[in-house]
Specification:
By secondary structure, the protein is α+β, with helices and mostly antiparallel strands. It has three domains: about 100 residues, Chitinase A, domain 3, CATH 3.10.50.40; about 45 residues, Beta Barrel (Thrombin, subunit H); about 110 residues, Alpha-Beta Plaits (2-Layer Sandwich). The protein is about 20% helix and about 30% strand. It is built from five helices and 13 strands. The strands form three sheets. Strands 1, 2, 3, 4 and 9 form a five-stranded antiparallel sheet that branches. Strand 6 and strand 7 form a beta hairpin. The chain is globular and about 70 Å long. The two termini are about 30 Å apart. The relative contact order is 0.13.
């Protein structure tokens, strides 16, 4: 099954720096354990990618357009199609005091933020520090070991994976309903209500769904709020000796945001 531009696929990969073999990114737990990347609370699984839409590095994106589901590939990516060439103008010397109160604790190789820019400390000495603002992989040739696991075909799979791409949520907690008239309702879990940037995330999800699923014409995000306050009658019942189990708990449902495709 050949992959076309805009195909939604699940991709397994491990990315290394060619010269050193250092793993800098992977979707595979076994490979992560062989490097310093492994995090026990992180779920390692294939990544959702839209072929040809710039979701991955240019060199990898171009290679995917000539592949099929089930292919296993080793792809070399040069700097011009990876993280770019190194730019000497992005390496600067400055007084060590620019590092702030913890300047004495900072070591070569640390990543610091100065003037709202992140850079890597390359040299410290004589009261001065050299900061490299290039991406740490700039100028590097990269090797990607890639397995194309699956192409998403049905709308349910596409919606679930598009939500999971944007919202930090367990797959089993993703809840949505597709109606025959092209209306989609996505229920936001209560644990997500105070998530920073939730409105931006919801807008991004809606943009993705309208782009990749033509059948969806209207999208609603639903938040359900449950009252934690006992009503007056319940309080009176308690004072009258009526059992607490007869209290009524009210539920309010708010369809917080409706987004229509234009």
């Amino acid at each position: 099954m050949t992959l076309d531009k805009g195909s939604l696929i699940l991709l397994d990969y491990t990315a290394k720096i060619k010269d050193t073999g250092e793993i800098f990114d992977t979707t595979r737990a076994d490979d992560a354990k062989q490097s310093s990347l492994y995090e026990s609370n992180h779920k390692y699984e294939p990544r959702l990618v839209s072929v040809g839409d710039g979701w991955v590095l240019k060199g990898l994106d171009e290679a995917l357009s000539n592949t099929n589901v089930g292919d296993n590939l080793t792809i070399e990516i040069t700097p011009d199609k990876g993280f770019g060439e190194r730019d000497p103008s992005k390496v600067r010397m400055m007084p060590q005091r620019k590092l702030g109160e913890k300047a004495a604790e900072i070591q070569v190789g640390d990543v610091v933020e100065i003037e709202e820019r992140s850079g890597t400390v390359r040299y410290i000495g004589s009261g001065r520090v050299q900061i490299d603002y290039n991406h740490r992989l700039a100028g590097k040739n990269l090797i990607y070991d890639v397995s194309i696991i699956k192409k998403l075909e049905n709308n349910e799979e596409k919606i679930k994976n598009l939500i999971k791409r944007r919202l930090p949520i367990d797959e089993e907690k993703i809840d949505f309903t597709i109606q025959d008239d092209g209306n989609l309702k996505i229920h936001i879990p209560e644990t997500m209500y105070l998530l920073e940037g939730l409105q931006i995330i919801k807008k991004a999800i809606s943009n993705d769904i309208f782009k990749y699923i033509q059948e969806i014409k209207n999208l609603q995000f639903v938040e359900d709020y449950q009252s934690t306050k006992k009503d007056d009658k319940s309080l009176e019942s308690q004072s009258s000796g009526i059992p607490e189990t007869e209290q009524v708990n009210s539920t309010t449902s708010e369809e917080e945001k409706t987004i229509q495709q234009t």
